[in-house]
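Following up on my earlier thread - several people asked me to post the actual chain instead of describing it. Fair enough. Here it is, all 439 residues.
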Amino acid sequence: MGAKRALIVDDSKSARLFLARVLEKYDIDVDSAESAEAAIDYLSSNRPDVIFMDHLMPGMDGLQAVQHIKNDPRTATIPIMMYTSQEGELYLGQARALGAVGVLPKQIKPADVSKVLYQLHLLPDRRSGEQSSFTPINVRIESEAPEIAATVLSKPLTDSTLREHFADLRRALVAGVDTQTDRITSEVRALLLEALPQPAPEPVAEEPLEPPPPPRAPPPWAWIVAGTALAIALISTGLWWRSVRLLEDLKSEVADLRTQRTPALLVPPAGAPVAGPAAAPADAAAAPVESRPIVALVPYGAEPLGGSRLEVIQKLLNRLVAERQPASVDIRTYAGRFCLVGNPTDGYSVAPEELLYSRCDLVGNPSDEAQSPVQRTPLALANLIGEVRNASGGAVTVKVAAGESGALAQPYPQLAPDVTAAEWNRAAIANNRIEIRVH
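Reply from S.P.:
Thanks for posting it. Predicted structure:
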């Protein structure tokens, strides 16, 4: 089978290079285009086996490009896979309706790429005879934002699930302690039986009775064994109690984490005084209470006010409009300073975790620094703000601004020769965020 060829259409150099490296691991030749218009010019004289199409690009966007390609009989049969940070079943249905075969997220995993390539028949069937000589490819995936892993669960974190987990842990712990206690008790009992004097046989009636010998005191080490057994039993009981307390503490910590991961959207109750443009509270007690900020992390290179973060903002604004309460929503974007590798020509990507901080090619956030104040508010958010203003009669206002660079959610590590990119970028991930406050 000849080499397959893929076309990557994306205005981000780092995104094109990243996906190209992954595809080349599967012996697929890669061509790139930085806009939809350039991709259409390329297709006039070339026919790739698959097209990976970004959604948000200057000029013609990805969905418009898919529609144009599918309407041309010469290119209509080329499979198109959307390669974008857009999410949700609604977007997937819209992309498929226009002719795309699916959506590949930019935070890709090796299994995602392998699955797509097999579905598009760009790799041999895994059940064919070639599989016997196949060697798994270890591809190091550097997502646009390394996950905080400490934060992803395989199943929903519910009260019933927690109770089941804690009950299983408690049963296993109690069973283990009981088993160890029974074993230790049996061994100590056997040792004591060996150490204690055996009863003398009853004398025969025909023979003259001899005075019984004085009772023999048990050897000193028998008391040591008994004391040791008692100490072990007490220690086992203490360990069981300590384990129970640890389980209770763990339950409390998990509950706190759940509260932090799903902060409540606090809105002033009906009838509460709300500060207006020209109104000021008479005293501190009359001042409106500010809600806890809603914090959403932004993957490196992603649009801060797009994707899932735009959905959070939309739900909040719709709720405020429905409750008919005057409110001022303050949205601030904060840029994390990442340890990056690359160059200005080919673009930058997040450095490997094991790389020393001193070997970073750049420490910053080029995608954020390149945005003007106007570009920080995407068209979708601007339209949403206008709709909310009209629906609420001007009662709900929204302000978007860049946050102070010194306002850190997590401090960066102290610079030292042994500081790695993983340690530095762990703080950069926490600081690359948006914060939403309702006044």
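The domain at 287-438 is CATH 3.30.1330 (60s Ribosomal Protein L30; Chain: A;). That should answer part of your original question.
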